[in-house]
From TrEMBL:
InterPro entries: Rossmann-like_a/b/a_fold, Universal_stress_UspA, USP_A, UspA. CDD domains: USP-like. This is Universal stress protein. Residues 2-139, 153-291 form the UspA domain. It comes from Mycobacterium shinjukuense. Pfam families: Usp.
Amino acid sequence: MTVVVGYLAGRVGPSALHLGVRAARTLKTALIVATIVPKAWPTPSMARVDAEYQQWADRLAADSADEAQRYLQTLADGVEVSYHHSAHRSVSGGLIELVSEVNADMLVLGSFPGGRRARVLIGSTADWLLHSSPVPVAVSPRQYRSHATRLTRLTCGYSATSQAVDVVRRCSELANRFGVPLRVITFAARGRTMYPPEVGLHAESWVLESWAAQAWEMLDRLRTDGVVSDDVVLQVVTGNGWQQALDTTDWEDGEILALGTSARGDIARVFLGSHSGKIIRHSPVPVLVLPG
């Protein structure tokens, strides 16, 4: 059992390494830093071109390992770290093969460097993995740092529906495995166009308050039904938009936000709803997406 971090020199920086070390230390397991390079297509070409491509791929893998080692020298105290590189038709496919091969507990990725507003920006590789990985996928926010040496609390994002109760159970099991406290939280955001202007903001506020009251009822039911214990913190957080809702939430240093997903049959392993995507983008803490 291990934690796998996907890493490529010069792309996403050390944020994923910071998160990977804390996850490995929390799980008391090893860390694998994996670099997957594109595999050459088997088309007729001159031997010289093939040799140059292989040299480039080898250099990219070596540079990635060297760069990661420099970061991890001061980060990974007490964590066993190894480095892996391989060629594959796709980076996502190569990472999933490795995850299955080493029986990994978790796959950790960094946020894509672009974007001005999103804290967690999902690139095409991460997006594919979020929908296909057989193990939980953790994504670090851009420029993620933490003074905590391990994960300190798991917050479970709960949609306050009966279908999401199983997600809370899975989060509870995961928190026990991590050895950290569990918090269950429901986010509600006032949309930009909840009602036309002539209706007035008071109507939007009333709808939001009514929905929050219903969410509290669903949260209380988790406790009365024995889904969570009495020491689990339950919260409803509302805001004028998803960013404000996430910003007004109290977060601990070293916290991770877990989100559940819905099954999507043979098309993909999971389906992330529109609300999940918005929560991921605006989260100031790492996000852990549980497979369906």
